[in-house]
Design brief:
This protein has 101 residues and is an alpha+beta fold. The protein is 38% helix and 32% strand. The protein is globular, with a radius of gyration of 15 Å. It comes from Candidatus Nitrosotenuis cloacae.
């Protein structure tokens, strides 16, 4: 199942402006890789950052939002960000469902 993970932080806690946040971000990719299996994440579809919006967007293929919640805590993103986890679908999947009904 696909999930969009939207993480927002304040300008003060931004890795561009905060040494502790910078340290966390420099380690986040390695922590993601080493913890994906533990939290039932089968694939990172994408990880995007909008620096001036102070927004990170991850698209994850995972078993549950609860596992993603724990994953975000484990890798450190939740230490500086408010996290929103949203189930999402690919447009083609929705179109196929619409055509079959």
């Amino acid at each position: 199942m696909l999930f969009g993970v939207f993480a927002t932080h304040s300008p003060e806690s931004c890795p561009l402006n905060n040494k502790c946040s910078k340290k966390m971000l420099l380690q986040v990719k390695a922590k993601m890789e080493s913890n994906k299996k533990k939290y039932g994440i089968t694939k990172t579809v994408g990880f995007y950052i909008s620096a001036l919006e102070h927004l990170w967007i991850m698209i994850l293929d995972a078993k549950s939002a609860h596992e993603i919640e724990q994953f975000c805590i484990e890798i450190g993103i939740s230490t500086i960000s408010t996290i929103k986890i949203v189930p999402i679908s690919e447009l083609d999947v929705l179109l196929k469902k619409l055509k079959s009904n």
